[in-house]
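Reproducibility note. Readers wishing to regenerate the assembly model reported in the main text can use the exact inputs given here. Chain order matters: entities are listed in the order in which they were concatenated for prediction.
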Amino acid sequence: MKRIVDRGLFEGSSVDIAPRLLNKLFVAGDCVGRIVEVEAYEGQGDMASHAYRNKTPRNEVMFGPPGFLYVYFTYGMHYCMNIVCRPEGEASAILIRALEPLEGIEEMQSRRPPKAQGIKQLTSGPAKLCQALDIRGDSNGIDLCHKNAHLYLADDGMAPPKDPLTGPRIGITRGLEHQWRWWLKGNPYVSK
DNA sequence: TGCGAGATTACG
DNA sequence: GTAATCTCGCAA
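Running the prediction on these inputs yields the following structure tokens for the assembly.
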């Protein structure tokens, strides 16, 4: 049985919340994946964050209320998705880097390239999982804590891991001093 | 007003 | 190793 996640979970810092998102479920229509890898991004003070400098059309959802989806377009080609944390006016978000596919696997495969149909190639990266779940710019700013929404976060009772692995975030050149990436030990679906 | 870098991926 | 080619910050 799945319960939608309460908005209260996201009212604090992404750094505190990110490891607790592991093992939660991300639901996109008929597709469901378990969160197995996340990264935390703060606002002012985090040089790697999109919200480090100014509010822009791209990052404005990060400054909004918690529990909403922040989707950005990058490298002229890919979408990545985050969950907004902290109260309105404070920027903070958690990047979903990898999911373990649970339901709707054929639908995910239909959106991935013909040569990337393997179960481990569907959602083992932040842009891969957005493509598999058909998350694009029109999903930016959606409320993930709203009942009956097409996109939402759910809890099926599996607790967060007691011993998640942690390390520096991937693909950045600044902010590498922070160990703000967390993943499930030994899980075959993490991005690496 | 233009250019380089970027929370990436697939393919040669 | 490189192309795909959007957004933003900063230099000119």
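We highlight two features of this model. Residues 14-21 of chain A form the longest helix (8 residues). Chain A is about 10% helix and 25% strand.
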